[in-house]
Amino acid sequence: MRDVNASASESGVQRLFVSDKTKLRMSRRLSLFVKRALDVLLSLTALLVLAPLFLITSLILLVIQGKPIFIGHRRIGRGGGMFPCLKFRTMVNNNEELLEKYLAANPAERAEWAATRKLKNDPRVTPFGAFLRKSSIDEIPQLVNVVLGHMSMVGPRPIVPSETIYYGQNYADYIRVRPGLTGLWQVSGRSDADYVKRVQLDALYVANRSLVGDLMIMVKTIPAVLNARGSY
């Protein structure tokens, strides 16, 4: 009789654990659904509000730089798939060849590029492109990526395949979520942060992500963009 009672008790405990796991899965699914719904709502609203700026910027680029107005740089998305990360074009054409020559002739800038994958004085960037980058206007087209599900409003910084070597074991965490239009890297100095710091911030976000955390990051993004903190 004691064995029967023990068996019944163990069965009840197992059902409790299964129930908790099911609740956890349901909670995660609900959180993902709400996050995606907010992404679509906020990105569509932002595109509507920013439509005049979007159009004016496109016309100016067409006049002073010519086509293409947009670039779709291949970045790594959730699950490791590739997507075209949209931006207004801020660089001259044939910019990769120009970069190679510039880095070969300038050791200090080559070290800067190796550490941050950014250059404060990038010879490829046009004068109007520099303004777009400083003001973050160049990233407005990424709202389309959010609508299409390539990106989220908040997430890790979108990276290219050559950057995966810097992530190591953290790469598995990176591809668990959609890359973000903004994130911890955006509100923590952006280009001023070295690459090790960026990877740490991405891993920290994935491990602790929440809807409340996303909202806090979006709020902190506003002054970061207005102050052009770490933007170039």
UniProtKB/TrEMBL annotation:
<keyword id="KW-1133">Transmembrane helix</keyword>
<dbReference type="InterPro" id="IPR003362">
    <property type="entry name" value="Bact_transf"/>
</dbReference>
<feature type="domain" description="Bacterial sugar transferase">
    <location>
        <begin position="35"/>
        <end position="226"/>
    </location>
</feature>
<dbReference type="GO" id="GO:0000271">
    <property type="term" value="P:polysaccharide biosynthetic process"/>
</dbReference>
<keyword id="KW-0472">Membrane</keyword>
<dbReference type="GO" id="GO:0005886">
    <property type="term" value="C:plasma membrane"/>
</dbReference>
<keyword id="KW-1003">Cell membrane</keyword>
<comment type="similarity">
    <text>Belongs to the bacterial sugar transferase family.</text>
</comment>
<dbReference type="Pfam" id="PF02397">
    <property type="entry name" value="Bac_transf"/>
</dbReference>
<protein>
    <submittedName>
        <fullName>Sugar transferase</fullName>
    </submittedName>
</protein>
<keyword id="KW-0812">Transmembrane</keyword>
<dbReference type="GO" id="GO:0016780">
    <property type="term" value="F:phosphotransferase activity, for other substituted phosphate groups"/>
</dbReference>
<keyword id="KW-0270">Exopolysaccharide synthesis</keyword>
<keyword id="KW-0808">Transferase</keyword>
<feature type="transmembrane region" description="Helical">
    <location>
        <begin position="40"/>
        <end position="64"/>
    </location>
</feature>
